[in-house]
Amino acid sequence: MMVKEVAELSGISVRTLHHYDEIGLLHPSRTTEAGYRVYSDEDIALLQQILFFRELGFPLKQIREIINRPDFNRLEAMELHHKLLLDKRARLERMIETLEQTMKHEKGEISMTNQDKFAGFDFGSNPYEQEARERWGDKAVAESNEKLNKLSKREQGDLEREMNAIYRKLADLRHGSPSTEEAQLAVGEWYQLLNRLGSYSLEAFKGLGQMYVEDERFTRNIDRFGAGLAVFMRDAMTEYVDSRQS
């Protein structure tokens, strides 16, 4: 298939396909003497997989590294995509239900508690576990998973609410200085909570705060509690660490 046909088939632009070729993400099987790109069925299958990764929020650089690994298995990746998309669908369905209930609440048709209004929001889980492993090693992540798996459903729900309460507390403070006593106490609660799940050093904690801003996926999720919260948390976490390392 020619590049224009692939663009029409996949719904992405010709320019995007050219970009994928230029960065080494998806090379067409051959190029004609006139310079036209020609894509094989194998190329089309790989493009589908790339777009699944993109839908799940993976950056292009990481996708390229994954699909170019000698041990990359396309079927295993598909099975993982399937699981993650099902998880994503379940979260969206819970949030849609919460939104529908909230609209009824606003119309006076039903009554909702403050706890009910946040059903379906799950900012305590980390869908980017592999990235965390690559940045900080397996130990903290493995310990966190082990501890989480030992919790009952009720305990997991309590933990999620505790995490979200800290996010909301920091969101209320985000328009002030991250170095205030109140902000530092709140971010200290966040550090202590993370260390109940794993062994996070001060340096790893500071790196996590930086990631909140550098990775748009984390920024987007955190800023749902309030615009600018990710930046505020990064600054507060940096202040928290620096004050203890000086």
Automatic annotation (TrEMBL):
UniProt keyword Membrane, yes or no: no
Domain of life, per lineage: Bacteria
Keyword Transcription found: yes
Regions crossing the membrane: none
Pfam families the UniProt entry points to: MerR_1, TipAS
Keywords attached to this entry: Activator, Coiled coil, DNA-binding, Transcription, Transcription regulation
Classification via PROSITE patterns: HTH_MERR_2
Residue ranges occupied by any HTH merR-type domain in the UniProt entry: 1-69
Coiled-coil annotated spans: 82-116
InterPro entries: DNA-bd_dom_put_sf (IPR009061), MerR-type_HTH_dom (IPR000551), MerR_fam (IPR047057), TipA-like_antibiotic-bd (IPR036244), TipAS_dom (IPR012925)
CDD domains with a match to the protein in the record: HTH_TipAL-Mta
Full protein name: MerR family transcriptional regulator
Source species taxonomy: Bacteria, Bacillati, Bacillota, Bacilli, Bacillales
